[in-house]
Amino acid sequence: MILLSNIQDGTEALADGASGEQVEKTLSIIELISSGGPSGIVIILVLFILLIAATYIYFERIFAIKAASKVDSNFMNQIKDHVSNGKIDSAQMLCAQQNSPVSRLIGKGISRIGKPLEDINTAIENAGRLEIYSLEKHVSILATISGVAPMIGFLGTVIGMILSIFEIANSGGSIDIKSLADGLYTAMTTTVGGLIVGIVAYVAYNHLVVRTNKVVYQMEANSVEFLDHLNEPI
Length: 234
Fold this sequence. Notes:
Keywords: Cell membrane, Membrane, Protein transport, Transmembrane, Transmembrane helix, Transport
Helix content: over 70%
Domain MotA/TolQ/ExbB proton channel: 98-220
Subcellular location: Cell membrane; Membrane
Distance between the termini: 117 Å
Order of helices and strands: HHHHHHHHH
Family: Belongs to the exbB/tolQ family.
Transmembrane segments: 41-59, 139-163, 183-205
């Protein structure tokens, strides 16, 4: 009985020790960033500012492009009816009411009616370049952020590794794990932060390019339709 009691006590002690070793440690994002030291915090702050800028540009442009793509399905039919009947003023008024890239291109072409078709085409092309420039405003910043953010994160990685190597070189045979960990935290957190911001900006940039190309195609299709109507024999 005494032997069984000792075995039971030993088993309970081992169970208690095992449960004590299995205490789970957690690390919040704020603690993870602060563990990287001043240099890591500065780089993460810069990346956070770039993320805010990329998010703002994306939503500002996506709403602008969405508004620019809205064209009445009956718009071109009305324009052709007005032009065919010689109601140039009514056609120009209709374009002014629409207030979209397509309507502004057609309005520019209508204002040149009476001149050679080549002059009308040139005027529409020049107006189209201005509309495309307006649609692509600030979009290039997203492309820059998508390329710069990972490089900034890599800069933090290099700084973190330098700090770790410096601590090892000056440890005098006894390495301070805490100081060494700070450098590694800087290296890892900035790399992850830079990649996240870069990926977000890259995806946002490509989505805006696709949406812009759809509006440009819409502008080209309507311009060609308008020029073809002017070129039709009366």
